[in-house]
Write a structure and sequence with these properties.
alpha+beta; Ribosomal Protein L30, Chain: A; 3-stranded antiparallel β-sheet; 49% helix
């Protein structure tokens, strides 16, 4: 059970053109960067370990961004999708037919 973190961009502290150039060096496209700047605050990365989050944050801060590392909680194994007993769509459809048949009997 490991804690997960995300990186949120709150704005830029350098000149916008310098920030854009630095982020381009990190591989961020211009169109994606436009959205990030326009929509800030925005989450850039999710489900990271603390070490990964710190690396991303450091790179963005060095590029001229104002970021925050946010803890998003722990995800215990008991909540994993594989362990849930989820009914199939056939089972759900059959249950709806049973309910409809019961309602018909009440009103007939």
């Amino acid at each position: 059970m490991a804690k997960k973190y995300r990186i949120a961009l709150f704005g830029i502290k350098a000149e916008e053109e310098i920030f854009r150039q630095n982020m381009a060096k990190l591989g961020v496209s211009g169109s994606a960067l436009d959205k990030y700047i326009e929509r800030a605050p925005v989450v850039l990365k999710r489900d990271l370990s603390l070490e990964e989050a710190r690396k991303y944050a450091e790179a963005i801060i060095n590029a001229g961004g104002f970021v925050n590392i946010q803890e998003t909680g722990e995800w215990p194994d008991k909540y994993s999708v594989e362990q849930k007993n989820i009914a199939s769509t056939d089972d759900l459809f059959a249950a709806q037919i049973v309910v409809l048949n019961r309602k018909r009997k009440i009103f007939v």
